[in-house]
UniProtKB/TrEMBL annotation:
TM region(s), chain numbering: 127-155, 191-217
Keywords per UniProt: Membrane, Transmembrane, Transmembrane helix
Keyword Membrane: yes
Family matches, as InterPro entries: Zn_peptidase_2
One matching Pfam family: Zn_peptidase_2
Organism per entry: Neobacillus bataviensis
Annotated protein name in UniProt: Zn-dependent protease
Length: 225
């Protein structure tokens, strides 16, 4: 039973990552009909939404694209910054979706930002407390570790609506501004959906692991009784 469980929590993220890489590789070879670079698409979306203070920079690393709310910067990986593919357009628009969320004070994004220090503490401290609690048979310590882990899991769950909303905003922007052709919308959506799978997989694995630890805790208390 445990072998099946651990196989599931390993295979789900691997499958999601492979899906992202394969989808990105496929559509990074397909140029948009407008032949706009990802950097230019990002700049136009930001300007159209009055976000002239948000910079667009070239980042480092494969699929390292992200929006930095501290510096108000959209950073695109080299292939998406310079590329004119459907994948580059979709990713650039998605990161601008986060910038728009930030500019409009999107509630879930603000909540996620507020959870960052708690989630970081939970991720770093939870497993230490959990392992000590299990091996030393200290249910109180195990429970504390579960509480810390729950904070990290909550962060991942809150990330889901943030990511899906950013993708919806991205599609609305590239379509309304004419940055991709009508026939390319389906392909752009496939890129965004594949990327979203990684967040769904991470959240699913985190919830499963949290439930497993809760069962261990309840079993430990039952044995003590």
């Amino acid at each position: 039973m445990y072998l099946i469980y651990f196989a599931i929590i390993v295979l789900i993220p691997l499958w999601a990552q492979m899906r992202v890489k394969n989808t990105f590789a496929k559509y990074s070879r397909v140029p948009t009909s407008t032949y706009r670079r990802g950097a230019d698409i990002a700049r136009e979306i930001l300007n159209a939404n009055g976000l002239f203070n948000v910079a667009v920079e070239e980042g480092r690393g494969f699929l390292s694209d992200h929006y930095d709310p501290r510096n108000k910067t959209v950073r695109l990986s080299p292939e998406n910054y310079h590329g004119n593919s459907i994948a580059a357009a979709a990713v650039a628009a998605h990161e601008c979706g986060h910038a728009i969320q930030d500019g409009q004070g999107y509630a879930f994004l603000r909540f996620r930002h507020a959870l960052v220090p708690v989630a970081n503490l939970g991720s770093n401290a939870s497993w230490i407390l959990i392992m000590i609690g299990i091996f030393a048979h200290l249910s109180g310590l195990l429970l504390l570790g579960i509480v810390f882990m729950a904070a990290a899991v909550l962060f991942q769950l809150v990330t889901l609506p943030v990511e899906f909303n950013a993708s919806n905003r991205a599609m609305n922007q590239v379509v309304s501004l004419g940055l991709i052709g009508n026939r390319e919308q389906r392909e752009a959506r496939k890129v965004l959906n594949a990327a979203a799978l990684t967040y769904v997989a991470a959240a699913a694995v985190a919830v499963l692991e949290l439930l497993r630890l809760v069962l261990i805790f309840t079993g430990m208390n039952r044995n003590d009784d």
